[in-house]
Every structure is written in C-alpha cells, then in structure tokens.
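Worked problem 6 (solution included).
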Amino acid sequence: MDLENTAAPRSGTRGRIVMLVDNGVNGDSRVQKEARSAADAGWDVILLGKSPGKSEQHWQIGEANVRLLKVPGPMQRRRHEYRSPMLRSPLAYRPGPLAAYRKQKMKAWRADLNIRLIEATGRRAPLAKLWLLPQRVFAKAASRWVGMRVRRTNALEARRKRMDSPLDRFTTAFWLRVMGRRAWRKLDPYLLDLDLAFGKVIDELKPDLIHANDFRMLGIGARAVLRARAAKRNVKLVWDAHEFLPGIKPWDPHPRWHVAQCLHELAYSQHADAVTTVSATLADMLAERHGLAEKPAVVLNAPDGQVSPEQAAEPVPDLRELCGIGPDVPLTVYSGAAAPQRGLDIMVESLPQLPDVHVAFIVLRPASPYMTGLAQRAEELGVGDRVHILPYVPHYQVVRFLSAADLGVIPIHHWPNHEIALITKFFEYSHARLPFVVSDVKTMGAMVAQTGQGEVFKAEDVTDYVRAVKAVLADPKKYRDVYDKPGMLDEWTWEAQAAVLDEVYTGLLPDSRRPSVEKAAEVTV
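Solution. The predicted structure is:
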C-alpha cells in the first residue's frame, strides 16, 4: 500500500469513505467486510484502526486500504494518579518508577552482600564475616522498610484506580453537575488521546463520508466532520452502532469509564447524518434514547454468502485435525469473543457429564488469562484432553472451518446487550449448518425456538445445558434439516447487508450513484 497516495482519492471511484474502528481490525469481521464490500462497490475506502504496537501498520483488504495508527495515551492515566501521596498515604512513594527502583535496589544490595559473604574465605574469613554482619542486618531492615513503603504505594495506586472513596464520588458528581454531557472530557480524557491520533489523519485524507464504528469512534468522526464543515467541506457521518452502550458490561473497571462513554455518545449522536445498527430491536432503542429523526438501518452481522476465487483457493484448516480427533467424536464449538459474561465456563463444567464430548474454543487470544483459567479448570476436572483452544481463522474461512463440528454453542449470560440482537456467530453457525445450543437470551433464544435450529437452555444452568447438548447429539439430522427450507439463509448473507449499507451511503451522497444504477433510473423515467 502506498501511504503517500492515500491523500488523494483513487481515480474512477464514487467518493472517499474513511472508516474508523477502535481496534486492530484483525478479528473484527464486520469491519473487514464493510471495508471490502464498499471498495468492491466503487468507493475509495481507507479503514483506520489502532495499532497494537509502537508503529503504524498498513495493508489491504481487497481494494480497501487499512492503516493502524499509533495512539499515544498519556491521558489514559488520570490526573489524580500523579498527585503526591502525602495526604492519603504519607509513607507511600510518589507516583512514578521510584518504588520499583527502590525495591530492586534493595534486592541487588542483599544479593551482593550474600556474594561477598561467600567470597570471604581463608584466614581472614571470620573478620570479613564480622565486618559484613552489621551491613547485612541493616540491609535486611532497610529492605523491610522499603517493602512496606512499596506495599503502601501499590495499595494507594489501587485505591486511586478504583475511585470509590467519598472524595472520588464527590468529584465525579461535581463534574457531572457542572459540565453535563461535556463531563466526559474530565471523566475519561483518553478519548481526547484517540481524537488527537485519529483526527489529524482524517483531516489529511479529506473524506466525503466518515463511517464511525461504535461509540468511541462516533465522537472522533463527529469532531472531524465539524472541522471539515468549518473549512467549507461538506462531509457526511454514518454512525454504526454495534451495541446498546448503557447495557454493556464495561470492560474497563474504572468507575468513571462507563459514565464517560455514555456521555460522549450522547454528546455526538446528534451529529450523525445516518445511523446503522445490528438488529431491529436495537434500532428502536437507539432511536428512542438519542431522539433520532429516522430509525437506524439494520445491517446484520452476517457472513459472506460467497468468497472470492483467491479466498476460495486458500486451504481451510481442518478443525478436527487441529483438535486431534476423528470424524465420529462428538465436537461442540464456540467461536467469538472470550469473556466471563459470554458463559464459556459452562462448556467446560459440563464435560464430566458428557463423557465422549470434546469442546473447541475459537478465540482471538488463546493465551488470555480467561482462556488460561478455563484450561486450568478443565485439568482440575480431569477433562483437559477434551478442551481445545484455537486461534481465529480469516473471516471468510469461518463458516467452512466451523462446519466440521457437530453443534455450535452460544452460552451467553443475561445482559441487556445480549438480549437484543442476533450476533455474528449466530449467522456463522447457521451458514455452517450447525445445530444450535443457545442460552435463553431473548432474541436468539426466540429465533432458535421458532426455526427449530437447535435447543434453548437456561443461562448459567449446567444441568439444563447438558440436557440440550444431549438432545441435539441424539438426533442432529433433525436440526440440520431446517437449513434445507427454501430461502432460509438468503437474507443472512453479507451480500444482502452490503446492499443496505450502500443504500445508506448513496442516500447521503446522491451524486455518487453507481453508473449502472443511474442508467436504470434513466430507463425507468
């Protein structure tokens, strides 16, 4: 990819779309498909994400350019975390590297004294050891003193991160009262770090349309639009809302984080020229919460119905071979994000009651603390050899990869966001023609019960989960036959969803219609 040429739109395109996403793109199949399909539809697409390293990265998805930006985060650490500890914990070290330095220095001093004691041999050994004795005693006392101060320092740092003291609660309430929606600047200034990193690049690219994925990128896109319009450039903003923000389980434990994100979203949602989202239920909720003039367009997280010839030519890993099992071994699979609220633990806890069943987890970070914990729990239960933790495959291989399993599991817990949408893996399992075992979350549970694709179990109930798995494995053909119904999967393809998304873009930039569409309109007239 030629970075110098991204400042000018590709010739012959319908206009420039800059897509924004708050991750490293890899693992986000929705964003990847959006970028590729928009480029295939004739748009000049540049997808901006966050680099996981210290340098910018770039590549292409089809004809779409991907740039992962370096995002410095000096404001990710709140101002109060830099304050002197004198008032809250006088014996703690001041913020910074001093505590770690003092602790390491004590270790080095005592280790050196130990070597000097070992070296004290020969006739002068007793005198040398006597000489070293007071130093060793003093070093031990000093080490204990430093250790105590380091513990105080760590405890203070933990309290400052928790922000659960009366003073912390007062300051949070104060900024909310004084600044209202603008208080996100005080509660989570890292959002400004993101804006500084992305904003400069967006301005240089001079887009015709900005597609902001999810809540943090909404504000960045809106601020870029405001700057562009101040410079007399008419730029449109599409907000692609993936979740109902008030209903998520916050992944940042900082108590101000969720409040700040909600305020930030409310502050900038009115700047969106169009809104898209992942389900009709969520569309209604967003329209009500943000007072939207139009109901958001629904773009489902569906998989590709077809893959390109070059993608089809790539060999797809054999799921069963990676698990080390044959074709007759019962295999359940989970593919997607890994977190406690996703309920993956039930698949491990149930294995002692499902003696022949193996479990495959397809996750972004197989070595994450959560997945390591599940593996350890499997060992404790004596089923470690039946649990297989594997990395993601490219999004265009997911369906073919998963099709080797006997059933797909969605064991998510009851959280507001889990109740309102058919998530990505629902469509991926469907196109892989897998029978389902899904928890009784509202939308997915109702859909599975309606279509007969699988069994529904009570969330977090191991006994009921075991019942559901046994029912599916006893007669898998009954559930697979559902997919033979004409038209069952037609609307659950990305091609159908890409057409909806392109209509949104074209509605905002009517002069950018495809030539074929313009000719059809002329014929109709």
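Discussion: Residues 331 and 358 are 5 Å apart (CA to CA).
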